[in-house]
Design a protein that fits this description.
The complex is a heterodimer. By secondary structure, chain A is mainly beta. Chain A has strands at residues 2-5, 16-22, 32-38, 45-51, 56-58, 66-71, 76-81, 90-97, 107-108, 112-114. Classes of the chains: A mainly beta, B mainly beta.
């Protein structure tokens, strides 16, 4: 199971930080871990993904602002997005799966809405 | 980046009738390893997305047999043989690798 959590609203130019807690399995297993977001009323956007080795792939449209990391001691992975604007307001989903190429989308969290507003 | 274009964007269907959604990519999706990484996702109202199909035509575990995927190169199709009430929602195609993975705009399926 995957469960997203975060601190709530974020101010423009601030940093969005979310964690995805992994239960029923180990973050160190042979899984890929990913983040996908969806603006209100909009479609899905792939943010990036990470493997236990630390190998990452990021969406170039966000690459300069995004960092995905794994915390083995707390069995979770995280998303950090800097210099946010209102355009970053979205439901953020974490997802996971065993396939690097097929994609880490076998399991999904319920999503968490992050609002960027002053 | 590869652009994915779905049609139609809205799909009213009568219960028990078939439905078909098209997805076209801006370039061939045949990857360097010879595989085609095209997936389909379903998002029911108020729910997280769920993958239905991977590598063009492989159904995920638990996905009903009425869902099928086909296609090659740049043209792909998701078919539902007989639409049921629980199929209402938005359907997305997604490609990748190559990275970055990209989604289509989504097709909203509703019951007539």
């Amino acid at each position: 199971q995957l469960q997203e959590s975060g601190p709530g609203p974020v101010k423009p130019s601030g940093t969005l930080s979310l964690t995805c807690a992994v239960s029923g399995g180990s973050i160190s297993s042979s899984y890929w871990w990913s983040w996908v977001r969806q603006p209100p009323g909009g479609g899905l956007e792939w943010i990036g993904e990470i493997y236990r080795s630390g190998t990452t792939y990021y969406n170039p449209s966000l690459k300069s602002r995004v960092t995905i990391s794994i915390d083995k001691s707390n069995n979770h992975f995280s998303l950090k997005l800097t210099s946010v604007t209102a355009a970053d307001t979205a439901v953020y989903y974490c997802a996971a799966g065993p396939g690097q190429f097929v994609g880490p989308f076998d399991y999904w969290g319920q999503g968490t809405l992050v609002t960027v507003s002053s | 980046d590869v652009v994915m274009t779905q049609s139609p964007l809205s799909l009213p269907v009568t219960l028990g009738q078939p439905a078909s959604i098209s997805c076209r990519s801006s370039q061939s999706l045949v990857y360097s390893d010879g595989n085609t990484y095209l997936s389909w996702f379903q998002q029911r109202p108020g729910q997280s997305p769920r993958r239905l199909i991977y590598k063009v035509s492989n159904r995920d575990s638990g996905v009903p047999e009425r869902f099928s995927g086909s296609g090659s190169g740049t043209d792909f199709t998701l078919k539902i043989s007989r639409v049921e009430a629980e199929d209402v929602g938005v359907y997305y195609c997604m490609q990748g690798p190559p990275w970055p993975r990209t989604f289509g705009q989504g097709t909203k399926l509703e019951i007539k």
